[in-house]
Amino acid sequence: MAQVTLRINGYAYVLGCADGEEAHLQAMATEVDERIAAIRQQSGTSGEARMLLMAALTLADDLYEQRRGEAKPAPKPDPKLGRKLNQLAKRAEDIAADLESP
Q1: What range defines the domain where residue 37 resides?
Q2: Per the structure, how many domains does the chain have?
Q3: SS3 for the chain, per residue?
Q4: Which tens digits make up the pLDDT trace of 5-58?
């Protein structure tokens, strides 16, 4: 098991992770630190726990919005577009057949 020292909001945290996952864990910590920096810039300095909570909530909101977006139903296909694609596919097959024949 590897150990990684992460710096978030000026504080050092030592966490364990699976071997080979160090860079991924560091990238996640960097994302959290960047969120905290943006929150600090907008609302000023606050307590460590509050800053971590606000960063966690913004990340959770992004995840929620992403999942909600994935749950949207797929748009209905346009029948005209389907016919046109079929025509183009047929034409491409005809061209390919002409190129293969001697």
Answers
A1: 1-102
A2: 1
A3: CEEEEEEECCEEEEEEECCCCHHHHHHHHHHHHHHHHHHHHHHCCCCHHHHHHHHHHHHHHHHHHHHHHHCCCCCCCCHHHHHHHHHHHHHHHHHHHHHHCC
A4: 999 999 999 999 999 999 999 999 999 999 999 988 888 877 888 888 999 999
